[in-house]
Automatic annotation (TrEMBL):
GO molecular function, one term: hydrolase activity
Signal peptide range: none
InterPro entries: AB_hydrolase_fold, CarbesteraseB, Carboxylesterase_B_AS, Type-B_Carboxylest/Lipase
Family from the record: Belongs to the type-B carboxylesterase/lipase family.
Class of the enzyme per the UniProt entry, highest EC level: hydrolase
Highest classification ranks of the organism: Bacteria, Bacillati, Actinomycetota, Actinomycetes, Kitasatosporales
EC number: 3.1.1.-
Keyword Hydrolase carried by entry: yes
PANTHER family associated with the record: CARBOXYLESTERASE
Designated name of the protein: Carboxylic ester hydrolase
Domain of life: Bacteria
Species this chain originates from: Streptomyces griseochromogenes
Ranges for domain Carboxylesterase type B: 8-323
Length: 465
C-alpha cells in the first residue's frame, strides 16, 4: 500500500483530529480510536479527543490466539502491534465531503473470535471506495477472553462483563453514526457485512436493542450460529479458570494476569479440549443471552420485529464443512454431531450433513425469523473455488480448490477491474460484490426475496464455457 501523506485529508471527529493519506490514490485513515478499554473484563468507554491521529499507520489489534492445537494464527501483518486496548478503526473513502452521503460498508472480520483484525494482508477493501463510491470501515475489537469471557457468575465485580465484544461493536457503530458524514459517508445508510464469526457477531447484533438504528442493511456470509445460553457461558468461564491454575485461582486474579498469561490459559484449554474430545476441536468464544445486551435469543427478537427495517442478505458456500478437511476433522466432527447415525455414509454426505447442521440450517432459521418479523431478506449460494482462495495463503492445499467455508472471501475482496486472478475469478467476484453493493445502495439484492414459498438460494458461480 502507498504511504504518501496528504496534508489536506484532515477530518475532525469526536475522537479528535485525524490526518489521512492517499492509498493508491484513495483517501484512507488508519488507526482511528473509537473507544477505550479502561479496565479488563469491563465495558468499553468512548474515545476522548487527544493529540492528532496520524492516520498513516494501522492501530493495535487484539491479541491473537490459535484455534487449532499446533497451529498459530497467520492472518495479520507480521509487525502488527497486539493489545487488549485495540478499539480503533480504518476508513477508506472517495473523499471527505460531508455532503456526499455515500453508502457505508462496515466489515466484521472472521477468525473464530480468537484471531484476525480490521487490518490484514488478505483483506483489501480499497476497491469498494475506489471503484464503487462507497465509504468502508474496518474495525478492531476485543477477541478471545478479552472480549468474550463472562466472569459475572464467578464474581459480582464482573457482572458487567457479558458480551464485551458486542459492546465494542455497538460503540463502534455509534461512532460511525456520529462521525462518518465527515468522511463522506451517509450515517443513515450503513451496511454491516461479516464472514464466519464476523457474520455470527452480526447475527447477535440483529438481536441487540442497543444496535437498533445504528445500521440499516446487513449481509451475513457463512455465519448464523445462535448465541449460547448463560449457563454455557458460565460453564466456559469455570473451565477457563480451572485451566489457569496455578496462574490464577479467582476471577480477580485472571483480570490481573499479564496478557501472555491469558494466552497460556487459552492454549492449555485448547489442548485439554482436544484431549477430552479425542480429536480436533475449536474453542468457541461467543455471545450469550445475558438479559441485557441480548435480552432474548436473537431469532426471537427478529421474529418480534426488532430489526424489521433492516434489509438482510444471507449467504453460504456450497461446501461449508469441507473446510474441516484441512485439519482432518470431518469424520471426527460427524461422529460427535451425529453419534447415533450411520457412520459408514460417504465423505461427501458427511460434509453435506455437517454443512446443513453448522451453517446452512442456522442461516435459514435467521432469514425465516427475519421474515416472520416483517423483514425482507435474500439468500445466495456461493458455488465457486477462486484460484485466489485465502486458504492457500494459510497453507491448506487440501481445500484451496473447493468452495468451502471461507472461499468467498477471495471473491468479496478481489478487485474485478484489477489484474489478480483468472477471468473467472474476476467475473465471479463482480457477481458476488454486485449483490452486496445493490443491498448497500438500493436496499435489495438483484433477485427475488426469500419467502417460505421461495427458499431456493440464488447461485453465484462462474459462467459455463
Amino acid at each position: 500500500m502507498g504511504d504518501h501523506f496528504d496534508r489536506d485529508l484532515v477530518v475532525e471527529t469526536s475522537s479528535g483530529t485525524v490526518r489521512g493519506f492517499l492509498d493508491r490514490g484513495t483517501p484512507n485513515w488508519r488507526g482511528v480510536p473509537y473507544g477505550r478499554v479502561e479496565q479488563r473484563f469491563h465495558p468499553p468507554v468512548p474515545a476522548l479527543p487527544g493529540e492528532p491521529v496520524d492516520g498513516r499507520h494501522w492501530g493495535p489489534i487484539c491479541w491473537q490466539l490459535p484455534i487449532v492445537a499446533g497451529r498459530s494464527p497467520s492472518s495479520v501483518f507480521p509487525d502488527a502491534a497486539e493489545s487488549e486496548d485495540c478499539l480503533n478503526l480504518n476508513v477508506w473513502s472517495p473523499g471527505p465531503d460531508p455532503g456526499a452521503r455515500r453508502p457505508v460498508l462496515v466489515w466484521l472480520h472472521f477468525g473464530s473470535r480468537a484471531y484476525g483484525a480490521g487490518s490484514t494482508p488478505m483483506i483489501d477493501v480499497w476497491h469498494f471506495a475506489a471503484r464503487h463510491n462507497a465509504v468502508v470501515v474496518t474495525p478492531n475489537y476485543r477477541l478471545g477472553p478479552w472480549g468474550w469471557l463472562y466472569l459475572g457468575a464467578l464474581d459480582p465485580e464482573f457482572e458487567d462483563s457479558a458480551n464485551l465484544a458486542l459492546l465494542d461493536q455497538i460503540l463502534m457503530l455509534r461512532w460511525v453514526k456520529d462521525n462518518i458524514a465527515a468522511f463522506g459517508g451517509d450515517p443513515d445508510n450503513v451496511t454491516v457485512f461479516g464472514m464466519s464469526s464476523g457474520a455470527s457477531d452480526l447475527g447477535a447484533l440483529l438481536g441487540a436493542p442497543a444496535a437498533r438504528g445504528l445500521f440499516h442493511k446487513a449481509a451475513s456470509y457463512s455465519g448464523a450460529q445462535a448465541p449460547m445460553l448463560e449457563k454455557d457461558a458460565t460453564e466456559f468461564a469455570e473451565e477457563f479458570l480451572a485451566a489457569a491454575g496455578p496462574l490464577a485461582a479467582t476471577a480477580a486474579e485472571l483480570a490481573a494476569l499479564p496478557n501472555v498469561g491469558l494466552r497460556t490459559v487459552h492454549r492449555r484449554l485448547l489442548k485439554q479440549s482436544v484431549s477430552r474430545a479425542g480429536g480436533p476441536i475449536i474453542i468457541r468464544y461467543g455471545p450469550f443471552v445475558d438479559g441485557s445486551v441480548l435480552p432474548k435469543a436473537p431469532l426471537d427478537a427478529l421474529a418480534d420485529g426488532l430489526m424489521a427495517g433492516v434489509a438482510l442478505l444471507v449467504s453460504n458456500v456450497a461446501e461449508e464443512a469441507g473446510v474441516w478437511d484441512a485439519w482432518g476433522a470431518v469424520d471426527h466432527a460427524y461422529s460427535r454431531v451425529f453419534a447415533g447415525s450411520d457412520q459408514s455414509v460417504s465423505h461427501e454426505e458427511k460434509v453435506e450433513q455437517l454443512s446443513e447442521y453448522r451453517w446452512v440450517g442456522p442461516a435459514r432459521k435467521l432469514i425465516a425469523a427475519h421474515h416472520q418479523g416483517g423483514g425482507t431478506g435474500w439468500m445466495q449460494k456461493f458455488d465457486y473455488a477462486p484460484t485466489t482462495n485465502w486458504q492457500t495463503a494459510l497453507s491448506y492445499p487440501e481445500v484451496a480448490r473447493r468452495p468451502v467455508h471461507g472461499a468467498d472471501v477471495a471473491s468479496l475482496f478481489l478487485d474485478p477491474e484489477g489484474e489478480v486472478g483468472s477471468e473467472d475469478d474476476r467475473a465471479v467476484a463482480a457477481l458476488d460484490q454486485a449483490a452486496l453493493l445493490a443491498l448497500a445502495r438500493d436496499g435489495r439484492a438483484p433477485w427475488t426475496p426469500w419467502s417460505p414459498d421461495n427458499q431456493t438460494p440464488h447461485r453465484i458461480a462462474a459462467a459455463a464455457h
